[in-house]
Specification:
Length: 446
């Protein structure tokens, strides 16, 4: 049996949703480590269970409720167990969750992660049931910077919240107003991660292009500073807003070769009327011009996007405009979603909400078309040599390695030489699938 040091407790943490949530989960673990919690993959042996939740679409929210239901029995069998909900559903529902789930002890939102040690202390002492969903207008640096490096890649939040209020989106409500971290604090965190062995860094924000609004460091300047940190070999960033992406950023790729050749640029729709209703601040042709400029300047750049189908009032012709944009721009990859009405958002009360069948049929058509395009895009790489950073073993075959290219493609390849996570290897691409590539390591001298 595993020997657990006296006083050490175990936490089972499950994360739903986006990379921002993954990053928050790392921070949750960081704060819990301070009060002697270690992670377990076994809910039945945990002293604390936390679900870090997502509410971007209704389906994501429903997943949380069914996961929560699974822990009810555990709690009944072990009254000392603490069960908590974090993340966007926690922020959105607050107190209501305690009513809905009587076995729940704690509800805390994304602005309250740093309070976790105190909250857990209070629950243990008084068996209190607590809700912590206050939002603050500024970032206290103690809330960040706790994440420890455990591999070759790491995510660093550079800002939180969003001020865009796109008509469909709940994020400005769950994550609050946009605030940027100080550039000095970010650089310190990056330097610490690099010392711990991190080589590939992803900077995170809802709208990274508006980083530093009102301060003296712009996003392109921040990227320059981060890329200069010793040990950092690749820098990624998500998510860029098409209306805010500057020429300075576009031209920075020419100068800063550590910037990964990938831009995630959510378009959401190809119809100008729908884009206007969504409040996105650009037209389809303005968007297309930016993508074309990127591709003209950097032919190896992968551009990926997000699309919502079936927004209220979207006609068949308007949906076809989205399909036409997809075919014209030939994205390397598309994340597509059925529109889902969210509480508090403007679009939830728009007229012309479309039936599920219409939304689901459009989503299917779009995904079929994109699968073909993604495959064609990947086929363009067959016969070429690409540099990958090894991430681990392949998902489908433990005897193979899996690496990621600068343009964000996954390449699986057999290799019997000495290599491990974090190594950079050149691979010759031999086969392409819609979501990955296969390759081999060229023998020396060839
Ligand atoms: N319904 C469907 N998709 C949504 N997204 C955001 N809000 C909704 C919603 N209400 C999608 C957008 C966004 C991505 C993260 O999730 O495409 O870019
Ligand atoms: Fe949501 Fe729009 Fe902000 Fe993105 S930019 S998080 S879609 S409100």
């Amino acid at each position: 049996m595993e020997q657990i040091k006296e006083g050490v407790k175990k936490v089972f943490l499950e994360t739903f949703g986006c990379q921002m949530n993954e990053n928050d989960s790392e921070r949750i673990l960081g704060f819990l480590k301070d009060i002697r919690y270690i992670r377990t993959n076994e809910p039945s042996s945990a002293d604390l269970i936390i679900l870090n939740t997502c509410s971007i679409r209704d389906k994501a929210e429903q997943k949380v409720y069914s996961a929560l239901g699974r822990f009810r029995e555990l709690k009944e069998g072990r009254p000392g167990l603490i069960v908590g909900i974090a993340g966007c559903v926690a922020q959105q529902e607050g107190q209501k969750l305690l009513k809905r789930a009587p076995y729940l002890d704690l509800v805390f939102g994304p602005h309250n992660i740093h309070r976790l040690p105190d909250l857990i202390g209070e629950i243990s002492e008084k068996r209190a049931r607590l809700v912590a969903v206050e939002q603050s207008a500024s970032i206290d640096e103690n809330e960040y910077g706790l994440v420890s490096a455990s591999g070759e890649k790491a995510f660093v939040s550079i800002m939180r919240g969003c001020d865009n209020f796109c008509a469909y989106c709940i994020v400005p409500y769950t994550r609050g107003r946009e605030v940027s971290r100080e550039s000095g604090d970010i650089i310190d965190e990056v330097a610490r991660l690099a010392e711990g062995g991190v080589k590939e860094l992803t900077l995170l924000g809802q709208n990274v292009n508006s980083y530093g609004a009102g301060s003296d460091v712009s996003f392109p300047e921040l990227l320059r500073l981060v890329a200069r940190v010793d040990g950092i070999r690749r820098v990624r960033f998500i998510t860029s807003h098409p209306k805010d992406i500057s020429e300075e950023l576009i031209y920075l790729f020419a100068e800063e070769l550590k910037l990964a050749r990938h831009m995630h640029l959510p378009v959401q729709s190809g119809s100008d009327r729908v884009l206007k209703e969504m409040g996105r601040g650009y037209t389809a042709s303005e968007y297309a011009a930016k993508v074309k400029l990127l591709k003209r300047l950097y032919p190896e750049m992968a551009v990926t996007t997000d699309i919502i189908v079936g927004f209220p009032g979207e006609t068949e012709d308007e949906f076809e405009e989205t399909m036409a944009l997809l075919r014209a721009l030939r994205f390397e990859n598309v994340f597509s979603f059925m529109y889902s009405p969210r509480p508090l958002t403007r679009a939830a009360s728009f007229e012309g909400q479309l039936p599920l069948e219409v939304r689901s049929e459009r989503l299917q058509r779009l995904q079929e078309a994109q699968r073909e395009i993604s495959l064609e895009r990947n086929l363009e790489l067959v016969g070429r040599r690409v540099e990958v950073i090894v991430e681990g073993t392949s998902k489908s075959d433990e005897s193979e390695f899996s690496g990621r290219t600068s343009c964000n493609r996954i390449v699986n390849f057999p290799f019997d030489g000495a290599a491990g996570p974090g190594d950079f290897i050149e691979v010759a691409v031999t086969e392409a699938y819609p979501n990955s590539l296969r390759g081999e390591v060229p023998q020396q001298g060839k």
